């Protein structure tokens, strides 16, 4: 509550004796400590440390964003350059096959030369498609990952090493292995 000392002196109800209020911090020396600004309390230090950690984490995130943005831009430019090179190579291949057909036309009728080049391109396309199909067919489901994801709700409980009832899936050297349920987590 704010105390106004400029009260109306004619009103006896407003005149009362109030104890004086201190408006400044005492600089009395306590237990051998120097006078002047007080040392910060543990709470103040903890708040300051938390704020510093928060600022540091924000700065690290900003640095990571900046680095990743730069890397992504360079990666995008590189991918675009490879795509442009691929398109140019496709156009160059057209002229190469046209050249082969014209070369064969020196010894064969023109239509036969172009038909041979067309047939070779179809056979080459079928072979490349077959290789691609066989590679895609070799792709397996991530069965261990699916299995561990299925068990995840049970493992979500934090259990002490001596109380675990489930084997723990961990990743070592790029492979999922099942650890002893009593082994400490790393």
From TrEMBL:
Region entry Disordered, spans: 1-42
Pfam family membership, one = Phage_holin_3_6
State where composition is biased (Basic and acidic residues): 1-20
User: Is Ribosomal protein found in the keyword set?
Assistant: no
Under InterPro entries, the record lists: Phage_holin_3_6
Record key words, sorted? Membrane, Transmembrane, Transmembrane helix
Membrane spanning residue stretches? 77-99, 111-134
Protein name, per record: Phage holin family protein
The record lists the organism as Modestobacter muralis
């Amino acid at each position: 509550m704010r105390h106004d000392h400029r009260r109306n002196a004619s009103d006896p109800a407003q005149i009362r004796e109030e104890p004086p209020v201190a408006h400044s911090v005492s600089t009395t020396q306590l237990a051998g400590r120097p006078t002047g600004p007080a040392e910060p309390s543990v709470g103040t230090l903890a708040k300051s440390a938390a704020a510093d950690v928060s600022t540091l984490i924000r700065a690290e995130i900003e640095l990571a964003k900046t680095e990743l943005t730069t890397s992504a831009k360079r990666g995008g430019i590189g991918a675009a350059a490879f795509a442009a090179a691929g398109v140019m190579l496709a156009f160059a291949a057209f002229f190469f096959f046209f050249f082969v057909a014209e070369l064969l036309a020196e010894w064969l009728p023109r239509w036969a030369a172009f038909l041979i080049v067309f047939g070779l391109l179809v056979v080459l396309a079928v072979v490349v498609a077959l290789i691609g199909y066989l590679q895609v067919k070799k792709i397996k489901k991530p069965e261990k990952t699916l299995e561990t994801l299925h068990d995840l709700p049970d493992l979500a409980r934090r259990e002490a090493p001596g109380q675990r009832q489930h084997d723990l899936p961990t990743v070592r050297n790029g492979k999922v292995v099942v650890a002893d349920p009593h082994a400490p987590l790393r």
